[in-house]
Amino acid sequence: MLAMFFWAFVIGGVICVIGQLMFDVFKLTPAHTLSTMVVAGAILAGFGLYEPLIDFAGAGATIPITSFGNSLVDGAMREAEKHGLIGVITGMFEVTSSGISAAIVFGFLGALLFKPKG
């Protein structure tokens, strides 16, 4: 079990280091970095490489933003098998809607409980 925590920490840390290098070395904006990380996760999922990473690293691979790209591709591919081309579009929204909805609800609750700036 200790090895599982170790590898989750290492893999999640490597993903974060890559993002930080994108900020510091390549001088990308947060929006560009976020988009690049999501696309990288989607590409890895498209080639079937992200699921083995999740199996190996657990939360180290599911918590970073790259996992969102994986979820988009996974949902799109699953629904495309059932419904064809229209499933590609509906599958992305079906799989990710609960996470996006939770972010909206918890963001709203946080704004009610704390004094938001700006």
Core attributes:
mainly alpha; globular; SpoVA; membrane; Stage V sporulation protein AE
Overview of this protein structure:
This is Stage V sporulation protein AE. InterPro entries: Spore_V_AE, SpoVA. Keywords: Membrane, Transmembrane, Transmembrane helix. The chain crosses the membrane at residues 6-26, 33-50, 85-114. It holds the Pfam family SpoVAC_SpoVAEB. With 118 residues, the protein is mainly α. It has one domain. Helices cover 84% and strands 0% of the residues. The protein has 6 helices and no strands. It has helices spanning 2-24, 30-46, 50-57, 59-62, 66-83, 85-113. α2 (30-46) packs across α5 and α5 packs antiparallel against α6. The model has no long low-confidence stretch (mean pLDDT 89).
What topology does this entry show?
Layout: H1 2-24, H2 30-46, H3 50-57, H4 59-62, H5 66-83, H6 85-113
Helical percent range?
over 70%
Structural class: mainly alpha
Number of helices: 6
| Form type | globular
What is the rounded distance between the termini?
44 Å
Concise structural overview:
The protein is an all-alpha fold and 118 residues long. The chain contains six helices and no strands.
